[in-house]
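Anyone able to model this chain together with NDP?
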Amino acid sequence: MKKIAIFGSTGSIGSSLLKIIKDDKKNFKIELLTANKNYKKLIKQANFFNVKNIVLTDYNSYLIANKLLKNTKIKVFKNFDSLSKIFDINKKIDYSMCAISGFQGLKPTLDIIKFTKIIAIANKESIICGWNLIKKDLKKYKTYFIPIDSEHFSIWSLLDKNNNKNHFEKIYITASGGPFRKLALKKFKNISIKDALKHPNWSMGEKISIDSATMMNKVFEIIEAKKIFDLNYKQLEILTHPKSYLHAIVKFNNGLSKLLVHDTNMIIPIFNSIYLNNDKKIKSKKIDIKRLNNLDLKKVDKTRFPVLNILKNINDKDSLFETIIVSANDKLVNLFLGGKINFTDISYNLLKICNMSQFTKFKSKKPKNIDDINNLANYVSLKIDSMSV
Ligand code: NDP
Ligand code: MG
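re: yes, here you go
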């Protein structure tokens, strides 16, 4: 029986993992589920899967859940500081999924590494801001890492596990182009929240859907790939591919190039991560020849998606500047989702922030610990408040 934990279980990725486990319930014991506010869904999940520990990080939701679950077997915690009360470093659980959205995913990701044999990370923000800290702990606690983001899962699958960065020259990741791939540029100003949330191919949480619409998601994915596979930015390129069938191409030094296609469904990487080294069969569609014949790969259009210019601004050396990009974007996306700014204000302000000397100076500073990252993120958030964007 595999012991597992799911951070962000009420979200799109977390719920997909639970759907897989539902069909194989007897082989799993879920030790922990977490959410921010959605206590109703979290309690339902905990009851259905017989889970003893849950975390609700929103204080009001925690208070309500605590009241509702009084005299039951379910223990409610208000943050991730209590993980040592739930897990034992000498009896590691088998698998943890980090699927909290946004910047707040970093702390629990770092906190769970020592308690788990395998860590699957969907939360790209934690990889981008804290990869040097994550990598150090993966090594220290001998924890095995699997990237879940579809492009990175594809690259990871294409690389021979003994392969190192000297064996390949270049990696291409694909981008669908999101809902506004063909929208007339003059209409970008009037994009509504509802339009921006409607991704043509993927069904995802709100934050990542907006990032896909601005193309910030690909900026993140390039940084993510750079860090996970220890590359330089010149080795990475984005290609648009409207059907999201092909996820990555690796061009090896020996003249071979490998491409990976799979159904446009996050269930595939999630399933393969939880059934690693297991011959379990997943229900999937037949190879789609029509889509293979029409991959329609193109270079990305930077005038349509100006945030892509941020990539020119980042050094190959990891630094706290990546935290600025992530936290500024988090804040601006929240302002857009709250109806406070226009869609185009996200890109405009991000580019502005990325060129301000008070922020560019962080390109030479590496995060030493999570406080460095959190303090800087708070500073960025306050700065944006004072900028009247
Ligand atoms: P969702 O928005 O659907 O779910 C987010 C989850 O995190 C929910 O359980 C939510 O709880 C919880 N959460 C949100 N904010 C906080 C917080 N401040 N503290 C603690 N928990 C919080 O996100 P997705 O499942 O779409 O994405 C999760 C991560 O995976 C993201 O980083 C995303 O970029 C990445 N990813 C997602 C893909 C996808 O297809 N969805 C593809 C590739 C990567 P509550 O329900 O209470 O709000
Ligand atoms: Mg992706």
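The radius of gyration is 21 Å.
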